[in-house]
Hints:
Chain A is mostly beta strands and 91 residues long. Chain A has one helix at residues 36-44, and strands at residues 3-6, 10-13, 18-22, 52-58, 66-72, 77-83.
Amino acid sequence: MFLINCPYCGERDQQEFKAGGEAHIERPKQPTELSDNEWAEYLFMRKNIKGVQFERWNHAHGCRKWFNMARDTSNDEIKAIYKMGEKPPTQ
Amino acid sequence: MTQNLRVKSSEFIDETNRISFKFDGKTYYGFKGDTLASALIANNVHLVGRSFKYHRPRGIMTSGSEEPNAIVQVNPNSNITEPNARATEIEIYEGLEASSQNCWPSVNFDIGGINNFLAPLFPAGFYYKTFMWPKSFWEKYEFFIRHSAGLGKSPNTRDPDIYDHRNIHCDVLVVGAGISGILAAKNAAKNNFKTLLLDEKNELGGSIIFEANEDNKINYNSAFEWLKTEINELKNIKNLEIKTRTSVAAYHQYNYLLARENLTDHLVKKDKKNKIRQRLLKIRAKKVILATGALERPLIFNNNDRPGIMLSSAIKKYGNFYGVACGTKNIFFTNNDSAYESALSLHNKGIKVEAIIDIRENSDAKIIKKINDAGIKIYWAHTIVDTRGYKRLSGVSIMKLSNDGTSVTGSKISISCNCLGIAGGWTPAVHLYTQSGSKLTFDEERKIFIPKADTKEQISVGSCGGDFELDEIITNLNYKLKNFLNINKTDFEGITLENDHETSKRNIWLLPSDQTIGKTKPFVDYQNDATAKDIKLALREGFRSIEHVKRYTTTGMGTDQGKLGNMHALGIIADIAGVKMGELGTTTFRPPYTPLTFGTIVGRNVGEFFDTFRRTPMNDWHIKNKAEFENVGQWKRSWYYPKENETMHQAVQRESKAARQSAGLLDASTLGKIDIQGSDASEFLNRVYTNAWSKLAIGKCRYGLMLNEDGMVYDDGVTTRLSENHYIMTTTTGGAANVLGKLEDYLQTEWPELDVYLTSVTDHFATASLCGPNSKKILNKIIPDLDLSDNNFPHMSFKEVLIDKIKCRIMRISFTGEQSYEINAPASYGEAIWQKCIEAGKEFNITPYGTETMHLLRAEKGFLIVGQDTDGTMTPIDLQMDWIVSKKKYDFIGQRSLYRSDTMKEDRKQLVGLLTEDPNIVLEEGAQIVSELNQKPVEMLGHVTSSYFSPNLNKSIALAVVKDGKNMMGRKLFVPMENKNISVTVANTVFYDEKNERLNA
Ligand SMILES: [Zn+2]
């Protein structure tokens, strides 16, 4: 059970949060220009790596804000938490 | 014949408080402070159960939570009986009743005991093999297996006890109150850390309080006396909370731990009453100090499971702590010095110790001299090759070990005894440590897994950290605590320590016998009856991974999770496979450390508190008017309103007719309502709905369909433009929360540039939906001032009005195909407005109707219900709703996916109407649809999604999804049912008033 440091509310129990999958997958600005394959890449393809993964999280039972998390999936260590729109930390 | 084996008065046993209890129907006596195990042993009862597979007689082996054998049923004759309780943990109280498990008809005469003689038929993997081949044998085996399998019996009525949960936040959590835990907790608290100390036992002090080892001294006094003073001092320390009878069940990431606090199990019935039985502590600790101690290992030799064979440390604890002799003629069998302490403590109490059998060549520990002085014979470099006695141990046979320890030599010596203490060394209790995700390392020399590293948030101290000897424990504890707590000094720094040191070591995982392994029964996992033979067989059959061997042989898979024998299983595998144990790895220890009752896990969330439910503001009226309710998500919605003896069908038929012929009233308060404001609100709606919104005039309503990005229908509802930058969106009842979440997601993460604010107002408004040809007349009675003409208030428009000074929003929208007004009032006036509609509608026989009639009426019109007629695989095109998908808009959620090759396929499953050949047959929802009856394999074309008998059309109607359905209009298909095939014809989805003439009639 993680202890997650919401960038707006502070440290809270994982129960208050909802995981939202891989982060930094931007919705294409002009979907109609994309081929089926390009659109499928955006829509369906997700990484599932062992190691540091960038994820979206939502403080669903709190401020309802979305934010990003860098989490090591091998030991669940939360490396960083940063707001939507911010760049992922480099190491 | 019972015999009193109470040998010594103990400060932990209150001999003035005599307690009677029943075991297997017989009454015995013990004292306050006894466990069921110690009290039974005092009465010379060792046979307490039968083993799982072979039904071998089994006795008490341990004195703690690691007990594999003495598993009993508490309150066996009650329907709230509790199975799988460990006799070693049950504190006796007046009136306690318990019985043996896993034996029938009785522990003394057990029919399953025949399995013991059939043992060759039950090798490792027996169950797997049985299930596989030959198939036809399964039925024969099943009867047999079902009758003999299973530990205990479960209660069959609701648990009447009260359970509770508590959240605890602390700076330092100390698990285990042995000497390390006590000193750690004391020093943490004294340094202003808010500290919590937990121990599963009822007394603090761990093993030192029953050790009575004169060679262990602190400040020139016995370690036990010194520790007692420390324990007394704990009472006066602030910042320290101590909980005994509290077992940590799970250790999750980020120092989140779950512990079970046992509050009343040790009390007599009348004192249990109305009290919380157990409390689940949910602990979030900044730092955790694990001081969980070590578990003594058994030795693995032929027939090592007879009643009377116990861990050496347990015999010592029963003697010193409970004042009970486990046997009158004792033998110890060991590979280390600790058994000598146990032997000496018995000898000093006048209990006969026949011999000590040691697999080592010698030992230079000081205690050896005392044993010699006591005249106790020591057999060096010997091993037990067999044991005797069926229901109670009666003797052992020993032989000399070969130098390499793989065989025995010389002649067999037979010694009689009724209790055998076995001492195979110590296994650090690292279960919680590994649960936390931390890694172990294997110490090849000492043959133990120990924590690999401490962290800033967690340390392991004492024997769970691999320190077994007193000076080692205290010195390392001092050093670790100072670092961990960042303090200069502990209060025990500089105490003088004296203790014996063990220098001679010898470890043999599987001790040899003079018989071949095939003829022996060296048990590794007592509870699951897994022997070393089974492990060898598994390896011979090709299993190599420890996880596979474990499952194949069921080693370590019982309720005790193999706390005793897991290391031996690993050692035997390593020996055979010729690999180092460290390379083999260990199996995962999973929570809970000791079993939890379901009651503790769910706490107060039982019965009506299991889940929250939501009621509409009109709920009281529905109850008064005898509505039947339906659960829709968390909502309690009125389903139908039966009159007198009406069945559901009759009520729904009546309600449906009334709504079309005169007037009906539906409580639609549960529909999701989202308030949307901001200068980009129109643009936002453009992007989230499939149709265009910019041109919707203020005061008008529009139906919208929302897709997922994959093009599949997600939700629908009517949205009204209240003013230039203000809309109110309605969603399906079940989808409300998810739709809001999804919209927030897009706003925050994809389109943060949009000026839009979303607020859920579902609970703020109550909605009465007035429909039917007389609805206009009724509304006119309620608001005479409002011009209800189709010109002033047309279909799909909105008015804000005052009804008795209550500001209401009225939308003229329809989910039934009839003229219909949805009156939205502030929630607290919901019932008043509803009542007003009922009053005004009396002369028109206004009929309240529930969700079932609503579903029927909308099906007559072919209006879909998202989630019933769709299932996340339907596009708007599949639903024949091409009209709602804007071709002009550049982008909306899901648009691109509508042009994927898969979604554009012509023959996808599509929503169609179905009419049965016999109009009186109502199809079953979910029934499959086929085109050919005799085809094999039969091709499923689709299934029925909605089906009703329409009283307004006087025939049955259905909606269905059918492959290539759009091209099948008029085709005859079949719905095969269990005992008949129903002929159906594919039809239009709109069955009633196809031209929508009734909306403005
Ligand atoms: Zn927050």
